Amino acid sequence: MSVPERYVISLRAGNRLRPVTASRTEQRKAELRREIVAASFDCFAEQGYHATGIADIATRLGIGHGTFYRYFDNKRDIVEHVIDDLIARILAALGEENAPDAVSTLEDYRLQSARIGEAVANLIGADPRVPRLLLLEAPGVDAELRERVLDFIESMTEVTAAYLAHGVELGYLRGDLDVVQSARAINGMILGAVIHGVRHHDEDSQATLARAIQRLMYDGIAAR
Asked: Most C-beta atoms within 10 A of its C-beta, which of 33, 45, 166, 220?
């Protein structure tokens, strides 16, 4: 089971992401780009995506329209950027020790899943506006963007299925496991947790929910 080509980075164990040293100018450009995204989030939250204009975003930052257009084509381009950035960060979290073929026992898979869950939770929790934008606002922008979000969710099914298929192959997961449908079920629980976090930012609540998901994944709900 492979990751779709559009989201390709190698997930095989041992493939390292090499740090790149940016110049001061590049760092400033990246900082301003982040500031534009943050200001856009604030405007979208206050006025709604469709009611927000480039002028609103530029005014909030104290920059000219021309400066905005050096970084983004339009406000929709910002949403595309957020999706691309989140995908890149999630896939980066799945590299090396968290790659699908990096473990060989159920216990190691439990630990690996906990690491991945924590990494993804940190990515989503770092800015609650990101899941709100992607799940609640972006699908309503236009049909193409709605399909992009759904495509992203479906691609994560393929990624999760790769982990399950590896476990079946090595024998630490059930041989009769339907890896694709099981992956959808697991991701459905995770998506539900993300939606819960959009409204409830309590860390303890999120932690107990994460543990409940892990128990359902590994132990089921039947008494033993």
From this structure: 166
